[in-house]
């Protein structure tokens, strides 16, 4: 009996040791998993929306490649709609001669009086700079284009493009540098995006307008054109019908709604001024023929 009991105790000890080792392993895995929180597979958060046969999932679906030729472009979009957030994608644009090729990354709501926040990269002849156009639509009204050149070659590597959207401001960033701010000016009657929006990205044929107003055409002998995307984790407030609503998306429980994100700090303000001075070559706010009287948000 004694021997059997002793043996049982050993078995218990061995199994306890096993459990201990197992939990250590699990803890280690969790630390590892936390280090890798940004590694979210494409299909966890996004779906292909068009041009299925022009989409490639790469590196265990942590990278997506869209391609465009004469037959089609392609696009993808988030599964969910969001009511606020600090959104990002890492993008590497099509290289070489990409005139007429548009790579887009934007948030958009559904319906005719829609809200939309746009990054649009307008391709160009090899060696000529790619334009980054941004636009803001609220209640169906856009016509707020700004255009900049970038301070790096966006076709050479991945760069991070971000959109902050809370109740105080919308900020477009390139590699954490603010390039545009659209403040909430509802108090002076300027509509502000408020509708649930999905995140969309696409590669499409903009030959009729994108490069030199459509005069520089796509060189189809360079097709297929390829844009690559990474960074599919989403910092946003999902709108789930009948549970979460727009109001909850303004809650301070979301970090991008905290005071730090209500306006740019002085360093960011300097960075924005620098971009405007050095890289912006079109701003609807200073387009006098188009707007003899600048839109009200331009004066604030
Ligand atoms: C189009 O690309 C081909 C191949 O690189 C080149 O020979 C041709 O000159 C290009 N056409 C234009 C209009 O740039």
Secondary-structure blueprint:
Layout: H1 2-35, H2 42-45, E1 46-50, E2 55-58, E3 63-68, E4 74-78, E5 81-92, E6 101-108, E7 116-122, E8 131-137, E9 146-149, E10 159-165, E11 169-174, E12 177-183, E13 198-205, E14 225-230, E15 236-239, H3 266-278, E16 280-283
Antiparallel strand pairs: 1-4, 2-3, 3-14, 4-13, 5-10, 5-14, 5-15, 6-7, 6-13, 7-8, 8-9, 9-16, 10-11, 11-12
This protein binds 2-acetamido-2-deoxy-beta-D-glucopyranose.
Residues 97, 219, 221-222 line the site of 2-acetamido-2-deoxy-beta-D-glucopyranose (NAG).
EC number: 2.4.1.207
Subcellular location: Secreted, Cell wall; Secreted, Extracellular space, Apoplast
Protein name: Xyloglucan endotransglucosylase/hydrolase
Strand content: 25-35%
The CATH topology label is Jelly Rolls
Helix content: 10-25%
Write the element-wise H/E pattern from the N-terminal end onward: HHEEEEEEEEEEEEEEEHE
Give the averaged pLDDT, no decimals.
Answer: 90
* Text of the CATH class: Mainly Beta
**Straight-line N-to-C gap:** 88 Å
Pfam families: Glyco_hydro_16, XET_C
Function: Catalyzes xyloglucan endohydrolysis (XEH) and/or endotransglycosylation (XET). Cleaves and religates xyloglucan polymers, an essential constituent of the primary cell wall, and thereby participates in cell wall construction of growing tissues.
Family: Belongs to the glycosyl hydrolase 16 family.
Subcellular location: Secreted, Cell wall; Secreted, Extracellular space, Apoplast
